[in-house]
Design brief:
The protein folds into two domains: 9-145 and 266-311, Rossmann fold (3-Layer(aba) Sandwich), CATH 3.40.50.450; 148-262, 3-Layer(aba) Sandwich (Rossmann fold). Helix content is 43%, strand content 18%. It has eleven helices and eleven strands. The protein has a seven-stranded mixed β-sheet with strand order 3-2-1-4-5-10-11, with helices on both faces. Strands 7-8-6-9 form a four-stranded parallel β-sheet, sandwiched between helices. β7, α7 and β8 form a beta-alpha-beta unit. α5 (146-167) crosses α6 (182-191). The N and C termini lie far apart (50 Å).
């Protein structure tokens, strides 16, 4: 934390993958800043927009009616060139030129790494708000967008179950989660899936096949296997192919839910969480906090240094994984 300098104008940007609820967080930042007699500048397209000075002044009406909209009104992008110190210097100079005294960054751990470098190299007051459907950021029980994403996945799998039952099919359903299995695990339990494959736990194909054979002996005529995209068996397509080689009499289908999990109107939980964290981000800057991510743990607002938020990750609940296995029997 660094001592507060006189903050008159706050910039806000969204970076990395979009998530439902980002607009609610933007709205909270803008209106909390205005309530405290601060100016707000929206930075379009994340760090790329910061480099090309895509700035726009924001008023209260700028964020009217966006709380129910998915995606991000400020747009987003990836900016690999931001790893270059000279590029970051340009970004800081652009902020100085536009009299932006502090920054709120809404995104995931990659976005926070960029924010942390601005904080460390130039002393810029920066606060992060966790916006990602993966729910893997350390320092908060839930990230903005996770609740909506799992509800989208659950709705899709419920529909697939109808077809699986009608045709005695096995569906391998791939959900997002390159490095973390939160979406897969929660979706699996909520839909009564027969198996859950996540990056955190090695996929044993032989064990999976034995389990599926047991299902058949128990007169289960259809199955839903939830597969996180980052599990080590090759994703839903790879796992399905390996199972087919071992169980040639099984009729299987693969469905990849993909980016529909990122879209759609945010759930009530995501809207409330985003509003709370966006509000607290501005309060943190006003009170002199910086170089931290705002989170919520056990219903309390917490502050996690970027160094920790960028290097540590939430871990899936192994007990919950065991429960999913037991309840699928």
């Amino acid at each position: 934390m660094r001592t507060r300098k006189n903050i008159r104008r706050i910039g806000v940007l969204t970076s990395g993958g979009d998530s439902p609820g980002m607009n609610a967080a933007i709205r909270a930042v803008v209106r909390t800043a205005i309530y405290n007699n601060l100016e707000v500048v929206g930075i379009m397209r994340g760090y790329s927009g910061l480099l090309s000075k895509q700035f726009m002044s924001m008023q209260s009406h700028s964020v009217s009616k966006i709380i129910s909209q998915g995606g991000t009104m400020l747009k987003s992008s990836r900016c690999p060139e931001f790893k270059n110190p000279e590029v970051r210097k340009v970004a800081y100079e652009n902020l100085q030129e536009s009299c932006i005294d502090a920054l709120v960054v809404i995104g995931g751990d990659g976005s926070f790494r960029g924010a942390n470098l601005l904080f460390k190299e130039f002393g810029l007051p920066v606060v992060g708000v966790p916006g990602t459907i993966d729910n893997d950021i350390y320092g908060t029980d839930f990230t903005i967008g996770f609740d909506t994403a799992i509800n989208t996945a659950v709705s899709a799998v419920d529909k697939l179950r109808d077809t699986a039952d009608s045709h005695n099919l096995i569906f391998f359903v791939e959900v997002m989660g390159r490095d973390a299995g939160f979406i897969a695990l929660n979706t699996s339990i909520a839909t009564g899936a027969e198996a859950t494959l996540v990056p955190e736990i090695h996929t044993d194909i032989d064990k999976l096949c034995s389990y599926m054979e047991l299902d058949r002996r128990k007169n289960k005529t259809s199955s839903i296997i939830i597969v996180a995209e980052g599990e080590d068996g090759g994703g839903a397509i790879g796992v399905a192919q390996k199972v087919k080689e071992r169980l040639p009499n099984y009729e299987a289908r693969v469905t990849t839910l993909g980016h529909i999990q990122r879209g759609g109107s945010p759930s009530c939980n995501d809207r409330v969480l985003a509003s709370l964290l966006g509000h607290e981000a501005v309060n943190a800057l006003i009170s002199g906090r910086s170089g931290v991510m705002i989170g919520q743990m056990q219903n309390q607002v917490v502050f996690t240094p970027f160094d920790e938020a960028c290097t540590r990750h939430n871990e899936i609940n192994k007990k919950l994984y065991e429960i999913s296995r037991i309840l699928s029997l």
